[in-house]
Amino acid sequence: MGPPPPAIVAFGARDRSRALLRKAFPRRRSSLTLTTSPAATVEALHGRFTDAVIVDLGAPGEQSREVAALSREFPSIPFFALAPLRASELPQVAQGFAHGEFVDLLVEGMEDAVQRDLIAPHAVTTCFARAMAPAAEAIGLMNSLQQQAWGLIVGQGGRAVRTEELATAVGLTREHLSRRFSAGGAPNLKRVIDLARLLAAAEFAKNPGFDLPDVARVLGFASPTHLSTTCERLLGVRGASLARLRAEDLMRRFQGAGARSRG
User: Fold this and answer.
1) Domain residue extents for the chain
2) Most CB atoms within 10 A, among 3, 82, 178, 256?
3) Do residues 152 and 29 touch, judged by C-beta distance below 8 A?
4) What confidence tens digit (pLDDT) does each residue in 142-164 have?
């Protein structure tokens, strides 16, 4: 059970850039959604989990600058610029950079593997897994099995995780994994999976470009109501509160709710 392939949304106004993007991010290595307008880019971001956005700055006009400006609406998602480095096109590339906040520049002609390697460390899934890995002990996961399972859970970036998949990954039956996971007073596996999803939801909720229904949709909750009821059950707060709570706040509330449920 490894991390899912990176989910990329790429705005490309030129036929050349779209062809380059399809070649650099083939289906076997990524999930690529190509858009040709700012509105379609926003629709894609609202409709699916996105690890990174690529913006083609090589075409003249306002559209690429509008898409570049979306980086300020979705600061949790890394934006990358794609551009040729021909001298005649440098002014429009510079204007695109001025309108957006980019993590890095992908240059046309760069090897496909290099483009993928530039994006991979900054992908939402990668950053979430890296940031959440140390949280295992903070929520009472102390032994190696618990920490291995936590690493697999957060490695999905906040997407739904099935206990059957986890059990297969660690070489146990589902029942055996659930029993061993909650040994020693640790929280049960289902609650921990839900916590990871809420930690991701809180991060997405801080983006001005997302409202609660958007967050529920991109993380695969059945509905905004499902997201809110999960918050209330695990943390004792409404879904609308996620945007103002830090990861530390969520874990503290999770621990407190678990202690009350055992009391």
Assistant:
1) 7-122, 126-262
2) 82
3) no
4) 999 999 999 999 999 999 999 99
